[in-house]
Design goal:
Blueprint: H1 5-17, E1 24-30, E2 36-41, E3 43-46, E4 49-51, H2 53-60, E5 67-73, E6 79-80, H3 86-95, E7 98-102
Length: 103
């Protein structure tokens, strides 16, 4: 499926509103052909610690991933500013993945 920006934004917001955490972060993985591989969100797995959306994306799709779109969603379904953390940025750079931040 091709990633059309208008439909992709709707899917990102819908996925973000399903997250039941304070920070609603959505990550979209895109391959070399421009197809959506996967959409992941941040997830808690221990008290006070969670998996970042980009971290989950990289570990779920290690080879075919070429671009990551990162977005943070408010409770009202609006895009908010976000930056990739240092650990995830190093991991992304090591794998040679491009990152796009939607604000």
């Amino acid at each position: 499926m091709k990633s059309h920006r208008s439909h992709l934004l709707e899917r990102i917001i819908k996925a973000g509103l399903r997250v039941k955490l304070r920070q609603r972060v959505v990550c979209v993985g895109i391959d070399d052909r421009g197809r959506i591989i996967d959409i992941t969100t941040n997830q808690s797995y221990m008290p006070r610690r969670g998996r970042h959306a980009e971290e989950r994306m990289i570990f779920r799709n290690p080879r075919s991933l070429s671009t990551i779109i990162l977005a943070r969603i408010s409770k009202l379904g609006k895009l908010m500013p976000i930056e990739c953390c240092d650990t995830c940025a190093k991991l992304i750079k090591k794998r040679g993945i491009k990152i796009e931040v939607w604000e």
